[in-house]
Amino acid sequence: MQERKICIVQVRSGARCMKRIVLCLKALGLGQIGKKVFLEDCASVKGLLRKVSHLVKEERDNV
């Protein structure tokens, strides 16, 4: 069975955001504009993405 991955790219800065939003970015492995990470498609990652959806762009892959 293939593992579903999500490619997440940070497109906006978290500089003027609340601290919990910045901590969500750190938990996703982001922190700089343009940084790209590949994470597995699970409920915990989806919850973090929901909190920072205004700062990131999401692409789904079947890698």
Task: Write up what this structure looks like.
The protein is 30% helix and 27% strand. It has helices at residues 19-28, 43-51, and strands at residues 5-10, 36-40, 56-61. The chain has a three-stranded antiparallel beta sheet, with no helix packed on it. It is built from two helices and three strands, in the order E-H-E-H-E.
State the oligomer. Answer: single chain
Radius of gyration: 11 Å
Give the DSSP E fraction (strand runs of 2 or more residues): 25-35%
Number of strands: 3
Q: What average pLDDT do the residues reach?
A: 92
CATH homologous superfamily annotation: Ribosomal protein L30/L7
Order of helices and strands: EHEHE
Unreliable residue runs: none
Mass-distribution shape: globular
Top CATH class: Alpha Beta
Helix content: 25-40%
SS-based structural class? alpha+beta
Strands in their spatial order, largest beta sheet = 2-1-3
Number of helical stretches of at least 4 residues: 2
Distance between the termini: 11 Å
The largest pleated sheet is described as:
3 strands, antiparallel
The name of the CATH topology is: Ribosomal Protein L30, Chain: A
CATH architecture: 2-Layer Sandwich
Query: How many independent structural domains?
Result: 1
